[in-house]
C-alpha cells in the first residue's frame, strides 16, 4: 500500500519521539493503532457491502433470465398442448363418424312391408318357445 521499509519506519519513530516526546508517545501510538484498526474494519465493511450489491445485481439478472426462460418454455408447452388437443379432437370426431353411420333423413315405409312387431309380442313369442 505505502511501501514503507524498515529504515523509513525507524526515521518516522525517531521524529515522532522528538516531536511528541517520550511521555506521550505510547498513548499516541495506542490511539493511532485503534484508529488504524477502525479504518481497516470500515474498509472491510465497505468491501463486503460492495460485494453484496454486486451479488444482488447478479442474482437479479439470473432471476430475470430464469423467468424469461420459464415463460418461453411455458408458452411452447401450451402451444404444443393445444396442437395435440386439436389432433385428438379431430381423431375422435373421425372415429365417431366412422362408427356411427348417419341416420336416414326420411323413412319411407313400403306399402307391402309388414309392421314391425311390438316389444310385447316379441317377449310373448320367446315365452311360448320355452
Task: Give keywords.
single chain; 130 residues; mainly alpha; 3 helices
Structure description:
- The protein is mostly helical and 130 residues long.
- It has one domain.
- It has 3 helices and no strands.
- It has helices spanning 6-20, 25-99, 119-129.
- The longest helix is centred in the middle third of the chain and has 75 residues, at 25-99.
- 0% of the residues are buried.
Secondary structure topology:
Elements: H1 6-20, H2 25-99, H3 119-129
Instruction: Report on the biggest sheet.
Output: none
> Which structural class fits the helix and strand makeup?
mainly alpha
Taking pLDDT < 50 over at least 5 consecutive residues as the criterion, the unreliable ranges are none
Which word captures the global form? rod-shaped
Give Rg in angstroms. Answer: 49 Å
Helix content: over 70%
Strands, total number = 0
Give the overall pLDDT as a whole number: 83
Strand content: under 5%
Distance between the termini: 118 Å
The number of distinct structural domains comes to: 1
Task: Give a quick precis of the structure.
The protein is mainly α and 130 residues long. It is 78% helix and 0% strand.
